[in-house]
Amino acid sequence: SLVCKGAKKYTSKNRSSILTYCLSEFIFDYQELKTIFTLQKANFIRNLYINEDLVILSAMNFASDILKMLCREDNDYYSLYNDYLKVLELINQNKIYESLSVYLARASRILGIKPVVDSCAKCNEEKVVTISNHDGGFLCQKHAGTYEIIEPSRLKKFRMVNHMNFEHISYLDEYHFDLIDFDYMADFFLTHIDMELKSYRFLRSLLSL
Asked: What is the pLDDT of residue 50?
């Protein structure tokens, strides 16, 4: 944790560098065994919130909540931070559905809740027809039961995001992602973390308008 003295003052030289969604470099004296440090200087690099749009801001807030969750489970902070910057960049490009879907899939792998997407979660049949959050992934016709039959194109997109990292996300440009595609990934993730995120609820309400 960093303490920034006088940060709330309008005359503070560090004020503009520590605002939410500002990318900055921080200079402080690191001492082993300490957990709280005093900020000496901050150098502003760029603003990560480019578009003044409520939906985009809400999507960024949701991504931030996911990052906080991951930092409690994985100490590979460099990788987590780079993925986070990438998802914010894509959100600012209005690629909300595909970027958050890939981010949630990445989070699922880290948290050990990755869905089964190469075959039926119950019998390994490769011809699948639906997604079951309860059963952990794809289901075939035999085990689909009363679940909704999902279009093959949407099943393909669900599988793709769960096999993808951000360095390959440009491959998704030829596919149209919409709210339904995002819902499949978000519903699976939120079911398995068994936690309500207010940022998601607010984002979802905006996306439904």
From this structure: 83
